């Protein structure tokens, strides 16, 4: 991630946290001891972990599982680095995690899921919970065991009540949003037929789109990720059988039609990660022509805005068939310079949260999950939306 964006995200998260200091819910980490038996390790060999807060009342038998996000590592050097920080090792993680937004236990802040069993799956494999490989050259040992971590966590949760779930929702943001697309069918297969299983991808709809110089930067990045982490065999068979390059099935746009449970796609059409890494990666802007625009959309040249709009159109085109033909699907594509809108309280459900057609994200997701209303919303192009919480251009 860009340093600048990383700093901005830290500032935003500090502001967000500061805002809810009074009644914030901290949840303890649970290490998955049985993971060792199936070789399900974090990059550095530490045990994987999750945080669970129990449901109660009418939600006592409903389960929300959320994949933590945090980018990827797709070569030995970046994975070796990652193995030494919290992104690749539970040894370096905070043991208490704040549950807010869709994970909040307060009906005022999270009207539909507050009383469910809520679980946050910690991300320590660098491959969206879907790799299965190992690197060992005698001096350096790295585990790429995301798929086994997913399996170990599910199997640990089963006897804790997941096997009796009435309703279930698999969610996640960013690399975790991608994980929720990739594991949606598998999650459904783990659970009884009678369980209502649905999936939510937040800021995980990474487009297979060329950058401003028409290089396929993201495609190349994902291809290296798939190869390094042994991901291909864990991608959906129906999808990999249908494409000439099976590795492409890591992109949600190709996988979409093969996902069986009802799916909700929550994304900004101007997602800041995609803007900074897919449309205008550093490699495509060596002279920094986009620097000011990347920090503040108001500083963008009309030509740059034009390219951003074209990216939005490309996203909507990739979603066309889902938008029109998926009767059980939900969509919330707003036009904010955002990234991850279900996890922090201010974007999920608060008086000034982002809205479309007078509905917040929490209300739209709830309408979809509980079938209260059709829930497919697509925003007008930037800058028409005045409800955004933008990560760039003033928070
Ligand atoms: C978290 O778990 C540790 C170890 O079990 C325990 O010592 C600590 O008190 C717990 N913290 C909270 C806030 O529950
Ligand atoms: C829920 O949030 C509201 C508003 O922030 C607060 O007044 C109330 O005490 C909270 N309830 C619980 C159970 O934490
Ligand atoms: C193992 O790989 C690491 C990272 O590529 C490298 O620094 C190290 O020299 C290698 N060790 C051997 C014995 O090849
Ligand atoms: C679940 O559904 C599948 C396919 O519809 C069916 O083959 C299977 O027998 C069902 N399992 C149970 C336990 O009902
Ligand atoms: C995927 O393939 C299996 C057979 O391998 C088939 O039963 C299933 O219906 C397919 N699913 C989709 C969504 O195409
Ligand atoms: C929706 O499905 C119908 C029937 O399969 C198909 O003809 C049509 O092209 C689809 N529409 C979109 C936008 O994909
Ligand atoms: C918007 O929603 C609020 C609360 O849900 C409601 O009070 C208000 O009347 C709605 N406004 C419009 C224009 O629909
Ligand atoms: C259902 O959604 C439509 C379109 O967004 C909206 O006009 C309508 O008011 C909603 N109905 C209810 C009961 O919320």
- The CATH architecture can be given as 3-Layer(aba) Sandwich
The parts where pLDDT drops under 50 for at least 5 residues are 1-21
Structural domains: how many: 1
Give me the side-by-side strand order of the main sheet. Answer: 4-1-2-5-3-8-9-10-11-14
Radius of gyration: 20 Å
Euclidean distance between termini CA atoms: 19 Å
Proportion of β residues?
15-25%
Present as ligands are: 2-acetamido-2-deoxy-beta-D-glucopyranose
Count of discrete alpha- or pi-helical segments spanning 4 or more residues: 12
Oligomerization:
single chain
What do the pLDDT scores average to?
A: 94
Q: Biggest β-sheet, characterized?
A: 10 strands, mixed
Order of helices and strands: HEEEHEEEEHEHEHHHEHHHEHEEHE
Q: Give the tally of β-strands.
A: 14
CATH superfamily: Alpha/Beta hydrolase fold, catalytic domain
For this structure, the CATH topology is Rossmann fold
Outline, from the CA principal axes?
Answer: globular
* Helix-strand makeup class: alpha/beta
Helix-residue proportion: 25-40%
CATH class: Alpha Beta
């Amino acid at each position: 991630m860009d340093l600048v964006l990383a700093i901005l995200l830290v500032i935003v998260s500090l502001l967000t946290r500061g805002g809810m200091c009074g009644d914030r819910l901290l949840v303890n980490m649970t290490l998955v001891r049985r993971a060792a038996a199936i070789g399900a390790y974090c990059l550095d060999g530490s045990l994987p972990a999750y945080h669970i807060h129990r449901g109660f009342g009418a939600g006592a038998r409903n389960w929300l599982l959320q994949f933590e996000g945090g980018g990827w590592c797709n070569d030995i050097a970046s994975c070796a680095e990652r193995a030494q920080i919290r992104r690749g090792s539970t040894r370096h993680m905070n043991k208490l995690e704040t549950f807010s937004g869709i994970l909040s236990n307060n009906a005022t802040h999270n009207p539909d899921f507050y009383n469910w069993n809520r679980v946050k799956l910690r991300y320590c494999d660098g491959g969206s919970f879907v790799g299965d490989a190992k690197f060992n050259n005698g001096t350096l040992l790295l585990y790429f065991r995301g798929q086994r971590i997913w399996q170990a966590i599910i199997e640990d949760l089963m006897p804790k009540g997941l096997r009796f779930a009435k309703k279930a929702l698999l969610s996640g943001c960013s690399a975790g949003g991608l994980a929720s697309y990739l594991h949606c069918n598998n999650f459904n297969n783990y659970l009884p037929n009678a369980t209502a299983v649905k999936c939510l991808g937040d800021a995980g709809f990474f487009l297979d789109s060329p950058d401003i110089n028409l290089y396929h930067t993201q495609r190349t990045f994902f291809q290296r990720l798939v190869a390094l982490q042994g991901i291909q065999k864990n991608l959906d068979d129906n999808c990999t059988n249908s494409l000439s390059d099976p590795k492409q099935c890591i992109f949600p746009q190709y996988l979409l039609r093969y996902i069986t449970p009802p799916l909700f796609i929550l994304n900004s059409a101007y997602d800041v990660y995609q803007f900074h890494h897919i449309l205008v990666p550093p490699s495509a802007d060596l002279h920094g022509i986009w620097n000011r625009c990347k920090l503040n959309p108001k500083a963008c040249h009309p030509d740059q805005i034009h390219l951003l709009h074209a990216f939005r159109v490309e996203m909507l085109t990739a979603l066309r068939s889902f938008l029109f033909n998926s009767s059980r699907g939900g969509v919330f594509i707003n036009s904010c310079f955002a990234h991850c809108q279900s996890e922090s309280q201010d974007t999920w459900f608060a008086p000034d949260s982002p809205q479309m057609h007078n509905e917040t994200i929490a209300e739209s997701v709830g309408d979809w999950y509980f079938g209260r209303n059709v829930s497919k919303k697509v925003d007008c192009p930037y800058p028409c939306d005045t409800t955004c919480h933008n990560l760039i251009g003033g928070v």
